[in-house]
Amino acid sequence: MAVVTFTTDFGSADAYAGAMKGVVLSLTPDAVLVDITHEIPRRNVAAGALTLAQAVPFFPPGSVHVAVVDPGVGGQRADLVIEAGGRVFVGPDNGILSLATRSPRRAFRIDSPHFRREPVSPTFHGRDVFAVTAGRIAGGCPAKEAGPPIDEIVELPAPEDGPLQGECRATVIHVDGFGNLMTSLGAGRTDGRWQLCCADRRFDLAGGRTFSDVPVGDLVLYEGSSGRIEIALRDGSAADLTGAMAGAKFELRRLS
Fold it and tell me: Is the pTM above the cut of 0.85?
C-alpha cells in the first residue's frame, strides 16, 4: 500500500487538488493519499521546495511525493520523476524537487504515454502528467519506465548561512502560518540577549528554548523543529512586528 503525498499552491477553493487525487486513486485504489499542503504561496517555487524538503524525512521509504508549484506549466521545462533516498518524487523541472533530492539520485523525463493522460492539458500537468505518474509508480511501475534519464535538473541553492554566531548576517527563508521567521542559520547557542536589525529597524530579543521562555509580546530567538534558527513573537506574529518577509536580509548581534 503506497503513500502518495501532495505539495502544491492550488489552495482548497478549487477542484485542482481533488482532481489529482482522483487520478491517483483511479490507477491505484488502495493508495494512501496525504496532503502535505496546498497552501504554498502562489508561484513561489522556493517555498514549495523548502516545505517538501522539511516534510519528506518523516514519510516511510517507498513514498511517492508529488510537488506542483509550476508557473512555467506548458512551457519548455521538463516533467520529472526522481528516485532519491528510497523515495520517489514527481513534479516540474523548475527546482521544486531539488532540495528534497540531493545526490545520489536518478532523474527521468516523463515522456512515456503510459505515464501521461491524453489529451494533456497545457495548463494542468498536475492532473494529466504528475498525478498519472504518481499513480503508476504507486501501483508498481518502475520510475525508469517513465522516460529517458536526465543527468542534470534545475537546482535551487540550499538556504544555509552557517551556524548562529555572536554576530551574523542571514536571510528569512520562510514565514510560517503563525508569523514565525525561519532563517538560513543552522543551530547555535541562542542563550542571552540579542539585537535584530532588519530594514534599518532594530529589535531586542531573548534567546530561549521555546516560546514560553519569554513574556507575552516579546521576541524570542530559538532553534526550531526544522533544526534552523527561528524568530517568533510570543502570542503574536514576528513577521507583522518586524515587517520581515521571505527573502528579507537581517543581522543578529549578541548583547549578553
Answer: yes
